[in-house]
From TrEMBL, chains A, B:
Natural source organism: Brachypodium distachyon (Purple false brome)
GO biological process, any: inositol phosphate biosynthetic process
Keyword check for Membrane: no
Keyword field: ATP-binding, Kinase, Nucleotide-binding, Transferase
Family from the record: Belongs to the inositol phosphokinase (IPK) family.
Signal peptide: none
Record's catalysed reaction(s): 1D-myo-inositol 1,4,5-trisphosphate + 2 ATP = 1D-myo-inositol 1,3,4,5,6-pentakisphosphate + 2 ADP + 2 H(+); 1D-myo-inositol 1,3,4,6-tetrakisphosphate + ATP = 1D-myo-inositol 1,3,4,5,6-pentakisphosphate + ADP + H(+)
Protein name: Inositol polyphosphate multikinase
Keyword Transferase: yes
Length: 291, 291
């Protein structure tokens, strides 16, 4: 317990600080997420509980694309000494990545559950229209790029918020580029986005599940992409566990009423197209490989 | 010209009547659609003009899924004797079907172009939320079922407007059922929805195009499904030209800004899942075939 600390590489969401609850990691593979206020924490807990045990969820989907859920634990809070707060105990999805590059992409043109209360709908809708969500079916909520040389890039919050379509394209290029120079060389595009086990292959597997699954609708959830630029496997072009695609943030997941999550699926297809375009462009302009 | 008359089998949209403009057919394969007011007519004409000549549209997509465009023609109007009104001249997509069953399915959770004026957005959004559009990614805007015996079923307008998710499922079952009895026997599900050339196969081909195309976003457009219950080919289980899947209503199509139409695509995937479920259910419960 004494080793709990805020995660170093968080790119979106609330942060732990003095007088503020935020997620913690134990450095041994676990991530502690404080239950959120306003029923959101209870809803996220209900989702993890239902999802973890659901017989219709393919184990491969659960293991590949979701953090493993280990129940809840009350932890003392720095915010209120002497008191404790319940936390979800999850796998730390960045565990083992020495210098993680991470991006949090909120999926769906619509981030409000259709039966949500009116003020919440109005607030979300305004944000969905002010960001790229309505236009693209997703928005980039956070990004951090670390390269093998140890350099790190992250944008200002204002740069993220005001992003337009070309801006999203630049973020997705920058995510697989060296940090120096113009940061858009796409040096790792083939290794991280392309190939077997790369982001594209994983997103396509996730998409195939969303074309079928009628269990949950993932409003306002994110796809978190991460990789370790230092991983020896990346340099060799084989990615293995070095490239990760995980879904996170389930405070607004609802039951599906028997229909697919067309909102998430449409956004996912849009993201796939963006990334596929980058891979295609890089493979057109790259010099020939080992021949 | 003297043979122009309102189409018999229209299931949605404006109808021609005394003092009212509406579409006309010539009975020889052409459909005349009056240009709509408020720029909508001009927008639809601009779409047909651009789309017809666009080098990036695969000819097979254009020929299979869109009515062919033959320019415009001014026609005298019954509404205002002595005056004429411009019409789009299109292929009559029901031409040659003796007793067509037709359903008009408006695709997309969101029927408003993101950059539309605010009052229009508010009006469409209210309707998208009041119907199944937001929940399902589509709504049934019209349906007419004719069976081989000549019987015809169509719902009241109020029944259509108030439809919920189970109601949509019933409409999609009824569309391929005999008109008598409870109208839900799904007698033609395998022939119309399933198989090579059936609705599912055609919708999947359309979906593959929407996963790639970044030319147009089809807000508020419909997929019109039709077949002829009298076609000998249906009885034999082979559908050929007897089952048609066409896109219609392009007054709110906009350019894509280089991204896919995730809104249309998500709705299309949702519709495919509904229809796939019906085919799967029928094939599970059907007695074995010719064995």
């Amino acid at each position: 317990m004494s080793d709990l600390r805020p995660p170093e590489h968080q790119v979106a969401g609330h942060r732990a600080a003095v007088n503020k609850l935020g997620p913690l990691v134990d450095g041994a593979g676990l991530f502690y997420k404080p239950l959120q206020a306003l029923d959101r924490g209870e809803q996220e807990l209900a989702f993890y509980t239902a999802f973890s045990a659901h017989p219709a969820v393919p184990p491969r989907i659960r293991d590949t694309f979701f953090p493993r859920f280990h129940g809840t634990r009350r932890l003392p809070t720095a915010a209120s000494p002497g008191e404790s707060h319940p936390h979800l105990v999850l796998d730390d999805i960045l565990d083992g990545l020495a210098a993680p590059s991470v991006t949090d992409i909120k999926i769906g043109a619509c981030t409000w559950p259709p039966r949500a209360p009116e003020p919440y709908v109005a607030k979300c809708l305004a944000k969905d229209r002010a960001t790229t969500s309505v236009l693209l079916g997703f928005r980039v909520s956070g990004i951090r790029v670390a390269d093998a040389g140890g350099a790190v890039w992250r944008p200002d919050r204002s740069e993220l918020k005001g992003t337009d379509i070309p801006g999203v394209r630049r973020f997705l290029r920058r995510f697989v580029s060296s940090v120096g120079g113009d940061g858009l060389d796409c040096a790792l595009a083939a290794a991280v986005y392309g190939g077997e086990g790369g982001v594209l292959a994983q997103l396509r597997e996730l998409k195939a599940w969303f074309e079928e699954q009628t269990l949950f609708h993932f409003y306002s959830a994110s796809v978190l992409l991460s990789y370790d630029a230092n991983a020896a496997s990346l340099a060799g072009g084989s990615v293995g566990r070095a490239v990760r695609v995980k879904l996170v943030d389930f405070a607004h997941v609802v039951e599906s009423e028997g229909v697919i999550d067309h909102n998430f699926l449409g956004g996912l297809c849009s993201l796939i197209k963006f990334i596929d375009d980058i891979v295609a462009e890089v493979s057109r302009t790259a010099p020939a490989g080992h021949s």
